[in-house]
Amino acid sequence: MSREIVAGVDGSPESLAAADWAAREALHRDLPLRLVHAWRWEPLDLPLAQDPSAQQRAAREVLGAAEATLTERYPDVPLSIELVGDTPVSALLGTTGRAELLALGSRGHGAVTGFLLGSYGQQVIAAATVPVVAVRSRDGAPAEPPAGEVLVGQHGSPEDSAAVLRFAFETAAARGASVRAVRAWSLPSLYAYSPSSLMLADEAGGLVPYEEKALREALAPWRERHPDVPVTEHVELGSAGQVLLSGSGAAQLLVVGRRARRGALGGRIGSVAHAALHLAPCPVAVVPQDVDPRD
């Protein structure tokens, strides 16, 4: 099945910034772009004249305006539009079978908003089987520096972070950018020590060399696949969210992972992704780690 990049559009500055980012990413990756707007007639229980056809025309105008702007800016990107008669969450999740990634608008410093209001954005990020990129708006354009590193957080074993590293390296390769891979670590509690863990740390020469070795091993297969991508390794004591945010100011993209978690209130995205989406000044890609990366 052919792949494409999908952007959710609702006419807000945030969603238009996300669509612009998606168009440039489509150009980098040589992929088509699809703009999606969800609209479904739900009459209100109010004594007001309600015209479903007028609302549908307004929805089409939102798509048409975005299409016209992006066609002018990026004439070489194959572009299509789709008006989906469904809820926003279902509409976007329904595109993941053919999408390489989804792009959504984000206001940051609060709930993930833009194309999806309230908790909808988090629902999409928590449930999507493809990477979702949240793009912040700056005067209607993406808040993204013209150059910079692709900053990625690595955690756990090479298998744990394979999907996240794959996306970071592929994005950097398409953009001609470098990768900064960050592994944050913390001192284990007294009760977490065991003879086997102490032996592994001793064999590596201490806790810091052990973490550095773990990062090198996780990066090795992706360096081999993308030998032209410059890579900087960074290991730092601290929480993953704080360490990543401290380096996100000059990044053109921050890539973090999330595992599928279900709670009483629905899907959860994890503390690191939550912090990045709220506070990172650059676009943030949230990559599902519970989906095996393609060979």
TrEMBL record:
Q: Name one Pfam family in it.
A: Usp
What InterPro entries does the database record attribute to this sequence? Rossmann-like_a/b/a_fold, Universal_stress_UspA, UspA
List where the protein spans the membrane: none
Residue ranges constituting the UspA domain according to the UniProt record? 1-136, 150-288
Residues making up the signal peptide according to the UniProt record = none
According to its UniProt record, which protein family does this protein belong to?
A: Belongs to the universal stress protein A family.
Entry protein name = Universal stress protein
